[in-house]
Structure formats: structure tokens, C-alpha cells
Amino acid sequence: MAATTEFVPPRSGRIDAKYTRVPGAKGNFEMIAWLFMRISGVFLVVLIFGHLITNLLVGDGINGLDFGFVAGKWADPFWQFWDLAMLWLAMLHGTNGVRTIINDYADKDRTRFWLKGILYFATIVIITLGTLVIFTFDPCIPGSPLEICN
């Protein structure tokens, strides 16, 4: 028994002009975005595995993860920038992927505009808050009984 499949054309049956490359056009944004996804993906693998190894395998493992562990880790600028790079690359990588999905599946220009607007707003908020947390983290809460704060 041989199974046959029938060719199903794309939804619209045509290629939208906004997605075709015009000879001589100067816009390379999609190619740069595609390249960014590949390069950031490689860096993210290194950053994430370094993060997991440092937090889960070195020292006391998962039992050693607590407020003091994070405070000690973020006291070193190396780990602040490591976590910052991981945050920024992960957010930008994910945002670029979701932007591509929105471009592929949102049919109306207005829908695409609002979805991408919400996406970009959420990305900016999360990157800003995450960066502030990393660089303004202070383990010494006023009135805290911790010995390192006295």
C-alpha cells in the first residue's frame, strides 16, 4: 500500500510583496536577524551551561542555592556581566523568534503592529528590570541581622 500526499498551496496562494526581496534594495534586516539567531544561540548554550554547572554542580549543588549564594555570586563583577549577557541574549533571541512567528501568522497589518508593539514593550521592561536587579542588588537590607552587613 502506497500512501499518496496531495500538494496543498500556501494559505493565500500568492507571495506577498512585502516579503519578497527587491533587487537593489538596501534592507538586510531579516538576514542580520537570521544571523543573530545563530550566533546568539551558540553564545547562549555556553552561557546557560556555565550557569547550570556553576549553580548546580559546583559546591553544595542545588542544596546550596539560597539568598547568600546569589549575594556572594553577584558580589563579583564577572558573574554580574555573565548573568547580564545571559539575560540580554536570551531576551533578544526570544524576542526575535516571536517576532518571526508574528510576521508569519498575523495576517492583518494592524494585528501585526499591535502584537509586535506589545512584544517590544515587554522585552524592554524585562531587560530594564533584570539589568537593574543585577546591578543594584544589595544583600544588606536595613535592619537585617546578617553578619556581613554589620
Automatic annotation (TrEMBL):
TM helices/strands, residue ranges: 35-58, 78-98, 118-137
Leader sequence segment: none
Keywords assigned: Heme, Iron, Membrane, Metal-binding, Transmembrane, Transmembrane helix
Keyword Flavoprotein: no
InterPro entries: SQR/QFR_C/D, SuccDH_FuR_B_TM-su
Location in the cell: Membrane
Protein name: Succinate dehydrogenase, hydrophobic membrane anchor protein
Classification of source organism: Bacteria, Bacillati, Actinomycetota, Actinomycetes, Micrococcales
